[in-house]
Amino acid sequence: MRTRRRLFIITVIGAILVLAGCATGRSDDPGGPGSVRIDHALGSAQVGANPVRVVTLGAADTQIATALGAQVVGAVRNPSSPDGNWPGVRPALSPAVTVLDSVRPDVTSIAALHPDLILATTAQSGYHDVYDRLSRIAPTIAYFDAPLRDPGEKLVDQIGRALGRSEQAAVLRERSDRAIDEFTRRHAASRAQRVAFGQFSAGTTYLMADPESQGARFFSRLGLRIPSAIADMRDAGGAGAALDMVTASQEELGVLGSADVGLISVFGGAPRQFTDIVTVSSTSLARSGRLHVIPVDLAAVLLQPNPATTDYALSGLRPYLTGS
Fold first, then answer.
1. Domain Fe/B12 periplasmic-binding spans what residues (predicted)?
2. How far apart are CA 290 and CA 24, in angstroms?
3. Most buried one in 115, 147, 236, 324, CB count within 10 A?
4. Domains 13-164 and 176-320 equal at CATH topology level
5. What is the pLDDT of residues 70-126, one digit of tens each?
């Protein structure tokens, strides 16, 4: 997890208002034809009909907006990808799209893009801190229930409404459902398997432990479930609790043996830094070859799935599951 940082930008109020007033295509009339009101945790946004210049400040914002055919003019980029694109973004963003930092807000650069709509439903906390300033530039939509915990289906529906593309959003959800149904049919042998999913970073292991988290619900739709031994670790809390994960000490990693398949990403280091830990390598999961080190981007999609990334997630999972 990145350390939370706040960016202080020296900007006079008058300059902010001038930039905000330059936003083109924004509906200043809440009752304008075709406009829609989107209520969210930080306020409400009155979005003009069919916004044509969209800024996306989170991974899912970019994935969903792109899948729905929005014209993205500025987006935060994936720091772990050579081209900056987030996993599952199709088509890939053009190099002409303005690159924004995924953690540190640059309000002036965002204003200069003259957006009609700013999507921040999955933005990092620094963007929530400057929500008031962003909302002066263009209608801005933040998270709905809790940061980084909104169901992907809800994000698709609400972003679809904001873009004036509800029909396309419904099609996207239906396509995702069909893909999941087909995957479970083809991989029936994997049903009822217990999955240990998590990340190893800077010497710390984070394991998904909440059966009600978005990632766990996605696994559940595939017939996979979190082992009770890992779910029982939730009471311990830990640094990963914000994303429905818990930290596991090296002494506790024997819990991986309670799973039928292990899917662990290793961030910022060699896979052996994790797999060579004695309490990991000695588990039946590791000895049987069912402990897999998966790509970081695949782990990110599985942690926060949404219908726009379903195909990417299923394609990535296929090699690791029985019957593939």
1. 53-324
2. 54
3. 115
4. yes
5. 999 999 989 888 888 999 998 889 889 999 999 999 999 999 999 999 999 999 999
